[in-house]
Protein 1
Amino acid sequence: MFKTLDDLGSGKRVLVRLDLNSPVEDGIVKDNRRFARHARTVRELVESDHRVVVVAHQGRPGRDSFVSLDQHADLLAEYVESPIAFVDDVYGDRAIDAVRSLGAGEVLMLENVRMCDDELPERSPEEHANSEFVRTLAPEFDCYVDDAYSVAHRSHASIVGFPLVLPAYAGRVMAAEYEANSSIANREFDGPVTMVLGGAKATDVIDVMSALDDEIDHYLLGGIVGELFLRAAGYDVGYDVGDGELYDHQWESNAERIRSLLDDRAARISLPLDLAYEDENNERTECPVDGVSKTQPLLDVGSDTVERYGAIVEESAAVFVKGALGVFEDERFSHGTVALLETIATTDCFSVIGGGDTSRAIELYGLDEGYFSHVSIAGGAYVRALTGQSLPGVEVLARNE
């Protein structure tokens, strides 16, 4: 599909694109699994005596998370176990001077690439390759390594421009994410394939279900999308209460698609049997769906649902997860998400856990990533891969092969 670090050799000037985008609280950049994952690629490049220059982004202009990458350099250095220099410039004279002064086995991080006007516009690879940013920086390097699968759905300059003007390779994260996230389309499994779908972005989930048909034997629904499907099935749930604005607008946009999916795939779609809410004593209380009258937020699937879903998982050859089944950040309502993840972890199956909230649950509740085949750090790119849409960052690497 594309060349990887195995094809790179040693002793080159390497520009490597990472995705170190992280939560920022009171100006402090928080550590997350992206630093550890990308460190493997950077460490391999260092060990092969490459001169390594990192380009990455943080936030978007106008947001509180749009900050410098100086803290990112320090965080990444801890995982690489090697010093990482930083320059507060992207492709100006100070950046070029710092790049040229780099020695073999040394690492430099450039400033937040989204501080460069050429980066963010969604343009063709050819247009980006001709930008001042790419034309100025590319001559300083022998090759380009893309390790940023989680932004591969973006046609931004640092992602699609450099592979048109430099020999390009996939880093370890890029290669692993592509293989795992495209496995529904590219692999055959000796047994049922199950997809666990939840979270707050119902439209994304419905897009995934619409794109996948014969590939999936069981859909296990929870979260907001689970309630919306229950609403379509005639239950008194799946609408906003109080100040909530999560359900009704998504229902209006997707009601016909939901009804169509229920009609076409009724035998393969499993809906929650019971739901949990916070009672007047601030305790978790469960109620069968046919007894629910929604007067307050419903925050998790219930125990009967977990038992039924777990039995399906245990008979599956492959399980793919996109979205949480409840508000797992509150321990009282973590049972659905965490219990099902624990069942997946102990089942002899191929398992891919989607990025975002679901992968955070693994970290929050101390589950061992090693029990899953792959835990993705991608969000939008994971959804795009599941729905069969193109990923510009992957396409340009394949063209470069």
Protein 2
Amino acid sequence: MKWLLLLGLVVLSECLVKIPLHKGKSLRDRLREDGKLRDFLKTYRVDPSSKYFPIMEGQVSNEPMTNYMDMSYFGTISIGTPPQQFTVIFDSGSSNLWVPSTSCTSSACSNHNQFNPSSSSTFQSTSQSLSIAYGTGSMTGVIGYDTVQVGGLTVTSQEFGLAYTEADFFSQMQFDGILGLAFPSLASDGATPVFDNMWSQGLLSQDLFSVYLSANGASGSVVIFGGYETSYYSGTMNWIPLSSETYWQITLDSVSMNGNIIACNGGCQAIIDTGTSLIAGLEPGISNIQSAIGASQNSYGEYVVNCNSISSLSDIIFTINGVQYPVPASAYINQNSCSSNFQDTSGVWILGDVFIREYYVVFDRASNYIGLAPVA
């Protein structure tokens, strides 16, 4: 049965090129006109050499994530032999994996799980130091190698950071460490990201991963390695070319409200970042947005709106690659505090969890595209 299926896929692949349909249009042309060609080829991607050589079958692996108050999303991995468990943020805005070490001297490590190298028979030490700075904190430590298990996948000889110091910020976090999902070029100290090793070790059926983030603290959030699931989105999956292969960076055409461009006039750069809670942008665009939604600063420096006005606020439209992606007030306003979920930053715009909760995201390393579709 398996070989019949493979034979059928090979024949189908050849039909895409060779068999014309009515009015001279091939099946490939028809699918392209209907906007379905890319999804079709991803589903039935066949190497012509498969007629002569065995096909190596990878997996699709689902890693559940906990939604902590719509502020962070984390899942459980294990490192070492026997496995030591850690909760980590799956962060598309960075590329390194690190967890606290038993050698950590910071108070931030004391209330989190710590990796004990001497308890793992497969651990390999190095003298290579590691230092990573994030927008909200930093860590320092050393690099080691060990077996890492993620979502049922076993990655061997994975480089990871053992934190010796952590910023106080991390003591308030519900997760132990971070697993970066951005490109190798962004990795500190030349470490190979976990996802790259998943692919190079033949663990995945496709060179991509996808993310669904639940809203309102609900369960069901997931990162899918090696595929994406149509049940998580509705409508058409739109594919956006990357403008840089460091972060998952794209070109944002504009930000508008009620038909008026209020930010990013003429285009700007943005990254899709699962590790950032809010939507962050450059000035004067963010100030324009706060003004457009009627937000003003309170005594704590937060931008807040009149709670009674939320239902009358219009969507804010992010136009990307010619397609409009509305974000409603119920998403860009914190419903508990009536505070704005926009903040200022430098460098590039950051479409964080506030945006991703509205749109199922496919991170396609094979083609260097982002796929976006409204959540189902």
Protein 3
Amino acid sequence: MSTPTATFKTLDDLEPDQRVLVRLDLNSPIEDGEPQDNRRFERHAETVRELADAGHRVVLLAHQGRPGRDDFVSLAGHADILASHVGRDVGFVADTYGDDAIDAIEALESGEVLLLENTRMCDDELPEEDPEVKAETEFVQSLAPHFDAYVNDAYSAAHRSHASLVGFPQVLPAYAGRVMQTEYEANTAIANKEFDGQVTMAVGGTKATDVIDVMNNLGDTVDDFLLGGIAGELFLRAAGHPVGFDLDPEQDLYDTQWVQNHELVEEMLAERGDQITLATDLAYEAEGERAEIDVDEIEEKDVSFLDVGTDTAEGYADVVRDSGAVFVKGALGVFEDERFSVGTVTVLEAIAETDCFSVVGGGDTSRAIEMYGMDEADFDHVSIAGGAYIRALTGQPLAGVEALKEQ
């Protein structure tokens, strides 16, 4: 049976010998027209392998890019990468619900795996519409009769009300795959779980609105918000420091966000100031090297700040070590440049060495774990979701999850 905490059926509830339609999220960076291997393939391979090993006939749906963009390509290359992780062949057909797709689906034997073409090449897929509307599309109505069950494993796309995510659960018995199950349970833990000790959240990244929404939703749960990134600099501006604005008006990283959010930021500092920890020093580039300055010594902003300073990073790490649970949303600096990885990496390393419950996610933050040689096993959960992770932290429903709950 499903775990007691599950709000939907999982693979544990699936009847044997099924023809199963499985939605994955294999959306990947594209270089020279070819998909690049990434953590999503490895994670989803667990679900695909489990289904195939159990003898189900497994048909996969996934998307890549959006129409009109350079990364909007076929999934032919994705099949080869996925096969290398699953450890068995993954067939591919350059069709989604036409005769070629149906013939390939009907020809499947027990334990065989087939990937269909990019769902976003179907006109029915993309418009955000109610699940009942999506269930009536030609896409869903053509494919569904050929299957016994539907599995949604695409948690990272679950905030989208697209046909392949919300339409099929209306017409087929629906289950959560292992990625969906583990992501949902980990990313809702901050709201649903009781922790023994302080709850800390390191929040950064480029979107102040996301940070504000997260802090508003979790203000009664989180004891200490450790701020960095562009959002952290905007909070410093609200606290009276001469930072948090654009040096180049064409860049527009700070000014528009300040206009849109400064009242909320100021209000949050006034109401929750004792829960908010701001950087005491910041890092910037000088003559090609990392340089740092205390926030209190900044008289005017004449350089771009690319990371929290070393003192701030070490102070944040001390907070982490005293915490019972730590959640990470967004990077504290431009960690892709090793010179400005100190804040993000110092906090992540402190989490890894501390016996606390930990979830890392939001955008590309989880990439820092691999980039800087940390072991993913030292974290309770490393999310592969971006937008869905933010929505979970802000308490917003996820269309794909809600569709599974309604079963």
Protein 4
Amino acid sequence: MDIQFEGKRVLVTGAARGIGRAICEAFAADGAAVLATDVNLAELELLQQYTIAKRGGSIVTARLDVTDEDSIARLVEKQGADFDIFVHVAGGVLGQKRQPVENVPAADWDSIYDVNVRGAFMVARAVVPAMKASGAGKMVFISSGAGLGVSLTGIQAYASAKAALISLARQLAHELGPFGINVNAVAPGFLRTSPDYERQWASYGEEGQQAMLEQIPLRRIGLPDDISNAVLFLASPFANWITGQTLSVSGGPVS
């Protein structure tokens, strides 16, 4: 299966590190013109500097705060909105930690929803008109295993937001399917892709880490490339008859 994206424009949010970075690198290596966006400009510069684009691919970086309508409007005004593919990676737990539900400030809940769900909605809203005009488009939202079950983080807003992202993908798939637009989600298992998740991994200790691995059929935690491979498949012509689905990429069902 030779997946190629020559002549395709791809917008990726949350692109500076981890899963987002791997997705940008993979698209560029397969010929796409990638617009990599994040609020972390320093790491975006490293992404652009070290990515090896092939088949005519390229990476351009831009600051984008997905929670800010003005930021999205400025991006569209400068870069255009005619993207063939949109991948929403921006999200995560935003440095928050587990605490009893009665102690969770409403602002903490809102901040996680703003990036994970509201951001996906607002950027999708911005790119849909051009996709409708072209009669084709692909969207992939990065959810989480937490959206399919119970979050290991224990953070209520994170689990709920990732489930909401799956529902949003399914709803948009029904709405946009008649226009030739596919919308799907990917639900990664645990990856050590940010300082938040490194702290979570360290908190388990050696015995807890081994216990986690023994629950995963493939006996390892995920790598960013595992997720980028799934995203590129869903964004490719090989997935033209797949929409409204959530692909779990987690090393197998946890026992």
